[in-house]
Amino acid sequence: MATQARFHDRTVLVTGGLGGIGLACALRFAAEGAHLVLVDLRDDGAQAALDACRQAGAASAVAHACDVADEDRVQALCARILQQRGRLDVLVNVAGAMLFKPLQDFSGADWQHLLGVNLLGPVHFTRQWLHHARPGAAVVNVASVHALMTTPLVAPYAAAKAALLSLTRSTAIEGRPRGLRANAVVPGAIDTPMLWSNPNLASGAETLAPEDVGSPADVAAAALFLASDEARFITGSSLEVSGGRLARL
Ligand SMILES: NC(=O)c1ccc[n+]([C@@H]2O[C@H](COP(=O)([O-])OP(=O)(O)OC[C@H]3O[C@@H](n4cnc5c(N)ncnc54)[C@H](O)[C@@H]3O)[C@@H](O)[C@H]2O)c1
């Protein structure tokens, strides 16, 4: 198979880049020659992730520890990346977090934390990207089926992911005159530690057939397509990657 390098010379920033879906996305962009910037709250596993990106074909790969909810840190980090790389082409907002509680037990601090990671993180990075992106640049936001339908115990997460789809539309319409695109992927159940830590699965409140569980690579394939020039006429949309779970009655 001929090697494709659709992201040759492009700088691709992936938040949550050390996690299941984020790392899978990073590896797909790496295989197409991108310069990778991995951003994550933690730094354990950074060296292994960078080695894997380089082995996959990345033109370069760096990792930065940063809380996506911290606007000042995000701004400083983006300034540094622009100084080093000179451009920021693709932004993949993957970092996310969940907490499981009855709605009446979520405190204001819980809401701020969950909206901070799942919604304001993408807002902060999108703002920096909008300031610096050139025509042809693209954002991909990783939302969730919880943006559309949900289960008990995850109200702030579901609200944040629904708002992330709205942010995607706003980014698309405001970016369009400048040739900038924004889309979302809407994953269903994906085989990562985040899925199996869901107490709704342990309690039986939520059940999953084996065919309902996808892999991080399934989400990465969709993100790569939406970020590529092949999707040049696609913006403001969301692509469900759930094995058809939401299509059933
Ligand atoms: N796994 C699923 O079933 C599933 C389904 C739908 C949507 N998603 C979404 O996909 C994304 C990735 O999830 P995953 O399953 O790979 O989970 P994961 O826990 O493996 O990865 C999440 C990553 O985000 C990082 N992160 C968390 N808080 C952060 C912060 N404040 N700042 C920077 N980084 C932070 C974590 O360190 C981790 O590396 C999330 O947005 C999640 O909501 C996952």
Key terms for this structure?
single chain; 249 residues; alpha/beta; Rossmann fold; 7-stranded parallel beta sheet; two-stranded parallel sheet; 9 strands; globular; binds nicotinamide-adenine-dinucleotide
Describe the overall structure.
The structure is a single chain. This protein has a single domain, classed as Rossmann fold (3-Layer(aba) Sandwich). The strands form two sheets. A seven-stranded parallel β-sheet has the order 3-2-1-4-5-6-9, sandwiched between helices. It has a two-stranded parallel ribbon with strand order 7-8. It is of the alpha/beta class and 249 residues long. It is globular, with a radius of gyration of 17 Å. Helix 2 links the parallel strand 2 and strand 3. The chain has eight helices and nine strands. Helix 3 packs parallel to helix 4. The site of nicotinamide-adenine-dinucleotide has 27 residues, from helix 1, strand 7 and helix 6.
Structure at a glance:
The chain has eight helices and nine strands.
Number of domains: 1
State which percent range the strand residues make up: 15-25%
- Unreliable stretches, pLDDT < 50, 5 or more residues? none
The fourth-level CATH homologous superfamily is: NAD(P)-binding Rossmann-like Domain
General shape: globular
* Average predicted confidence as pLDDT: 96
Helix content: 40-55%
End-to-end C-alpha gap: 40 Å
Q: Radius of gyration, rounded? A: 17 Å
The oligomerization state is single chain
- The total of beta strands comes to 9
Q: Give the cofactors and ligands.
A: nicotinamide-adenine-dinucleotide
Strand order of the largest sheet: 3-2-1-4-5-6-9
Q: What is the CATH class name?
A: Alpha Beta
Q: Give the helices and strands as they follow along the chain.
A: EHEHEHEHEHEEHHEHE
CATH architecture: 3-Layer(aba) Sandwich
**Category from helices, strands and their pairing:** alpha/beta
The number of helical runs is: 8
Largest sheet: 7 strands, parallel
Per the CATH scheme, the topology name is: Rossmann fold
